[in-house]
Amino acid sequence: MTAEEIDWDSLRATALEAMEKAYVPYSKFPVGVAAIVDDGRVISGCNVENASYGLTLCAECTLVSGLMMSGGGKLVAFTCVDGHGNALMPCGRCRQLLFEHSAEGMLLETVSGIKTIDEVIPDAFGPRTLVEYRESTIAEQ
Ligand code: THU
């Protein structure tokens, strides 16, 4: 899918709807995310905090859980909004989470425009790194 083929307004509206469901008694910083899966499904997520602050689930965590629970697949487009509906950059850990489930060339709506997953997490550590290492150790034997 190219950036022009994606209905970013509609995806953002889904993220806004998800943001309304955020459980944020501690930070009072609601986040909503939405993504298009490679089979056309649209999924979403919100952040869910915890009294043990470090256990907070970012909105991307609930999105990835929803991805797996609704049939899996790869993410082709993603957007993230704050409580004002403004674009929000996924935190570092969540870029890693998204990378794991990204389709080749996945697009993200960011604070600085539409970017690819490789632009927001360059030279990422990921599934391929582990496969390549395994293959190189087999070749050594
Ligand atoms: N948060 C997210 O849900 N996703 C991000 O990518 C950035 C941060 C949440 C976690 C916490 O509930 C709140 O924003 C403030 O850090």
Element order: H for helix, E for strand: HEEHEHEEHH
What is the topology, as strand order, of the major beta sheet? Answer: 2-1-3-4-5
Structural class: alpha+beta
Radius of gyration: 16 Å
Which segments are poorly predicted (pLDDT under 50) over 5 or more consecutive residues?
none
Total strands: the figure is 5
Question: Any chance you could write out the topology, listing elements then pairs?
Answer:
Layout: H1 8-19, E1 32-37, E2 42-46, H2 59-69, E3 75-81, H3 92-100, E4 102-110, E5 113-116, H4 117-120, H5 127-140
Parallel strand pairs: 3-4
Antiparallel strand pairs: 1-2, 1-3, 4-5
Tetrahydrodeoxyuridine (THU) is lined by residues 24, 27, 29, 31, 47, 49, 56, 58-60, 90-91, 94.
